[in-house]
Automatic annotation (TrEMBL):
Its EC number is 2.4.1.1. It catalyses: [(1->4)-alpha-D-glucosyl](n) + phosphate = [(1->4)-alpha-D-glucosyl](n-1) + alpha-D-glucose 1-phosphate. The modification N6-(pyridoxal phosphate)lysine is found at residue 674. It is an enzyme of class 2 (transferase). It comes from Fuscibacter oryzae. It comes from the Bacteria. Allosteric enzyme that catalyzes the rate-limiting step in glycogen catabolism, the phosphorolytic cleavage of glycogen to produce glucose-1-phosphate, and plays a central role in maintaining cellular and organismal glucose homeostasis. Phosphorylase is an important allosteric enzyme in carbohydrate metabolism. Enzymes from different sources differ in their regulatory mechanisms and in their natural substrates. However, all known phosphorylases share catalytic and structural properties. This is Alpha-1,4 glucan phosphorylase. Belongs to the glycogen phosphorylase family. GO terms for molecular function: glycogen phosphorylase activity; pyridoxal phosphate binding. The keyword Isomerase does not apply.
């Protein structure tokens, strides 16, 4: 390690740190630029003293974390400035990713990994008497998202910075992210999440970047022109977090909006002694960024949610236009410089809002405003579930956004006029504004998130619109960032990969194919197995600490982690677990493969059926984990509060990835990709991106089961399908009998009668229909696991063939097929 030269140059400018050279010269070789630990140590101590005002003997773990975070952040700022400056200087097109959710997780370790400073940070903190991994874990997990859609946005931000796509993420700076989950007597209890209680060291407040967001009121006509006179306004105030890419070569901005009152305080009321009322406007405005809606997949129609969506979107668009005008005067040129991606329909008000800003506020004729907006906008669909599709009552929509209601009607009749469809599927229908149709009509490209899903978007979701606009719907299969999900989360495997195929795979994941040449080498397999075991040993210790359950690292770790939803079929998994337990008890001396069943995930607070499934899993766990007959053969663990950090711990320690949704229901899945990368074969259905995982990894390395999408649709036509399936399956009959008898709820024997009744008679998600096939696939897993060499080979093949699922590939594809943006590096 050598000292970086303090005088590294960039465009004639002397910079304090050496990193800048990467941006300017595309220099891949970081080795001669590594920061020496003494420098980083001095920086940490300087922040501890001067930023935090603490001396080392009195510093808490929080103080140390903050000091280290600020020191690391300093190293992000220069590449960030350099990237921003270059984008300006070269007048580049930028992408604006609008999302109501960014499920970021912790930042510190990820930042050190991307800067190549993780080892130094660890060394430095050790020299200060501090444990780096404890410091990393002290950071709150920023949970500004519900699940897949929010985590995808976070992976995309990191990949855009890695591949050098100039980009801004726009979201809401929720004061409270997704609730914390606890179990009380096996049932989910929600507690508020409070990530901002401590200072968030990664953001820069930008009070000078603030916009007025209007709501309500009415539309008047002045000089023959519509003028919106709002009834309320709030202020959107920016907070910027830099997002650094791999090796610090590029950085982008995540800009999150905080809602503030336009009028802080009613002094007159205060002086009259009415203190609560005096603070009212402030409290009201702040509710807009107070809390993330915890519902994924069911849409509620709440006015506050619509206001949040408009708040994010209007602030973003005003910011985009301000930036554009700072250098351009012709608004018709907007699409040359601006690509706006709508992450699902949540920011779909962007269509009418951009038309309004271009026409009402900037004088463009309506049709030109339409064309300009459309050329900028792209729409990504993330779900087919009808209950998740946003539709706003025209009453609510018109009250909150009266001018937009008019514009939506105008867009609708423009579309009807221009394309004269045979039977028109309106944007406004049955007194509702349909946000999917609106987003579709306003976007030049619409995309699904896996090959199967994009097909279903064409055939089932927007068949008429697809006929009217052939070629508008395209596919962009999701991906995940291998820096966080492999390099950072699975150090033993990442080190083995580098040892085996060299470095460079982190930003060129197809290189993992190089591992295939080694899977038949026993020495390599032994190392692969050892890396997995190290993760399992660590997880077993953590499970003991956090769940009080003893599990053996020699058992097969079988993991299903994701939001709890009927279509994801955690119920299928737990019922099969009951069946397996029963089978062991019937024949205790058979050659069983020991298993640990791991569940993780939250239910939406109002989703009663999902909550019942959680209760049921916990009840089954209590009985099974206390059964002396099966104690070395089967354990069930369900740690509380599954989140990004827990995923980073569980996925690298998994042997088997459960991806068992009812075919046709999971748009893509991204957890499935993380497991694959980390060497866990999938047991799964032909759904979402499982289809492509199967294609990449080969049928011999995947445990496929279950009905296909077409078969599932056909099966539902028979109203008696579940009864027939159950009656034809002795294992299923046995399981349902045990549950109905109260074997898992001895204190309340009829607790799960409703659950059993639904499986018998209202099994829309086909748990019964797929049960035997799933059971058989699980038996194949057992047999395969018993053959160590073959199993490890299969696991390694999963890693080797996971290159396609890097979000770098996804982002490059969006850049060329939707955004028309070249890479800047
Ligand atoms: C309005 C309520 C609401 C909120 C969130 C409805 C729907 C959502 C999301 C679209 C749900 C979601 O997260 N979808 C997931 O998106 C992932 C990223 O594309 C996919 O991998 C998952 O399959 C999909 O369920």
């Amino acid at each position: 390690m050598t000292r970086i030269s303090p005088g590294a140059t960039c465009g004639g400018k002397v910079t304090r740190l050496g990193w800048i050279r990467n941006v300017c010269q595309g220099d891949d070789n970081l080795d001669d630029q590594r920061l020496i630990p003494e420098t980083l140590r001095a920086e940490v101590l300087r922040h501890l003293t001067y930023t935090l005002g603490k001396d080392a003997p009195n510093a808490s773990i929080y103080d140390w974390r903050m000091a280290l975070s600020y020191a690391i952040r300093d190293h992000i700022v220069e590449p960030w400035f350099a990237a921003t400056r270059r984008t300006w200087a070269e007048d580049r097109k930028r992408v604006y990713y609008l999302s109501m959710e960014f499920l970021i997780g912790r930042i510190l370790e990820d930042a050190t990994v991307n800067l190549g400073l993780r080892d130094q940070a660890q060394e430095v903190m050790a020299s200060l008497g501090q444990d780096f991994s404890q410091i990393v874990e002290d950071e709150p997990d920023a949970a500004l998202g519900n699940g897949g859609l929010g985590r995808l946005a976070a992976c995309f931000m990191e990949s855009m910075a890695t591949v050098g796509c100039p980009a801004y993420g726009y979201g809401i700076r929720y004061e409270h992210g997704l609730f914390r989950q606890r179990f009380q007597n096996g049932q989910q209890i929600e507690a508020p999440e409070d990530w901002l209680r401590q200072t968030h060291p990664w953001e820069f407040a930008r009070p000078e970047s603030a916009y007025t967001i209007p709501f309500k009121g009415n539309v008047e006509t002045r000089d023959g022109k519509p003028v919106w006179v709002p009834g309320e306004t709030v202020l959107a105030s920016a907070h910027d977090t830099p997002v650094i890419g791999w090796q610090g070569k590029w950085a982008n901005t995540l800009r999150l909006w905080e809602a503030l009152p336009t009028q802080m305080f009613d002094l007159e009321r205060f002086n009259r002694g009415d203190y609560a009322a005096a603070a009212e406007p402030e409290a009201l405005a702040r509710t807009l960024s107070r809390v993330l809606y915890p519902d994924d997949t069911t849409y509620q129609g709440k006015e506050l949610r619509l206001k949040q969506e408009f708040f994010l979107t209007s602030a973003a668009l005003q910011d985009i236009l301000r930036r554009f005008k700072n250098g351009h005067s012709n608004l018709r040129d907007l699409p040359k410089y601006v690509a706006i991606q709508m992450n699902d329909t949540h920011p779909a008000i962007a269509g009418p809002e951009l038309v309004r800003l271009l026409s009402d506020e900037n004088g463009l004729p309506f049709e030109e405003a339409m064309e300009t907006a459309q050329a900028c906008l792209g729409y990504t669909n993330h779900t087919l579930l009808p209950e998740a599709l946003e539709r706003w009552a025209t009453f609510t929509f018109g009250a909150v956004l009266p001018r937009h209601m008019q514009i939506v009607e105008q867009i609708d009749s423009w579309h009807r006029r221009t394309y004269s469809p045979p039977h028109y599927i309106g944007i406004v229908k049955h007194q509702e504004v349909r946000m999917g149709e609106l987003a579709f009509v306003m976007a030049h490209k619409v995309n699904g998130v896996s090959a199967l899903h994009s097909d279903l978007v064409k055939k089932n979701l927007f068949p008429e619109l697809n006929r009217l606009h052939p070629g508008r719907i395209i596919n962009q299969t999701n991906g995940v960032t291998p820096r966080r999900w492999l390099k950072m989360a699975n150090r033993p495997l990442a080190d083995l990969i580098t040892e085996t195929i060299g470095d460079g795979w982190e930003a060129d994941l197809d290189k993992l194919r190089g591992l295939e040449a080694h899977v038949d080498d026993a020495a390599f397999r032994a190392k692969f197995d050892k890396s997995k075991r190290a993760n399992k040993v660590a997880l077993a210790a953590w499970i003991k600490d956090h769940c009080g359950v003893t599990v053996s690292p020699d058992a097969l770790f079988d993991v299903q982690v994701k939001r709890i939803h009927e279509y994801k079929r955690q119920l299928l998994n737990i019922l099969q677990t009951v069946s397996h337990w029963h089978a062991i008890k019937q024949d205790p001396t058979a050659n069983w493969v020991p298993r640990v069943k791991i569940f993780g995930g939250k239910s939406a607070p109002g989703y009663a059926v999902a909550k019942e499934i959680i209760h049921f899993i916990n009840d089954v766990a209590t009985v099974v984990n206390n059964d002396p007959d099966t104690k070395d053969l089967l354990k069930i663990v369900y740690p509380e509060n599954y989140n990004v950090s827990m995923a980073e711990r569980l996925i690298p320690a998994s042997d088997l990835s459960e991806q068992i949704s009812t075919a046709g229901k999971e748009a893509s899945g991204t957890g499935n990709m993380k497991f694959m990368m980390n060497g866990a074969p999938t047991i799964g259905t032909l759904d979402g991106a499982n289809v492509e995982i199967l294609q990449e990894v080969g049928a011999e390395n995947f445990f496929l089961f279950g009905l296909t999408t077409e078969e599932a649709m056909k099966r539902r036509e028979d109203p008696d399908q579940s009864r027939k399936a159950i009656e034809a399956s002795q294992p299923m009959l046995d399981v349902l009998q045990m549950v109905a008898e109260g074997r898992f709820s001895p204190d309340q024997k009829d607790r799960y009668h409703g659950l059993v009744h639904r499986v018998w008679h209202h099994d829309y998600f086909l748990v019964a229909a797929d049960f035997d096939a799933y059971n058989a696939a699980q038996a194949k897993v057992d047999a395969a696991y018993a053959d160590r060499a073959a199993w490890v080979r299969m696991a390694a093949m999963n890693t080797a063939r996971s290159g396609f699922f890097s979000s770098d590939r996804t982002i490059r594809s969006y850049m060329s097929e939707i955004w028309d943006i070249p890479a800047a590096i």
